[in-house]
UniProtKB/TrEMBL annotation:
It comes from Pseudomonas edaphica. Keywords: Receptor, Signal. This is TonB-dependent outer membrane receptor. Residues 1-18 form the signal peptide. The keyword Signal applies.
Amino acid sequence: MGALALLLLLVGITPASAAPSLLTLDLPAQDLEHALHAYSRATGMAVLVDRELTRG
């Protein structure tokens, strides 16, 4: 879950000129691969990751 939290933190970084926005997600505990798919569906943002990193 630490990797997912780090990913969500990094994805949230935007240029200073961009208007800040707030998005609340309620994703259940799950393996990283499924969590990233759920995050992608919920945000409409593509998440690209090496499949080796999602294997548990």
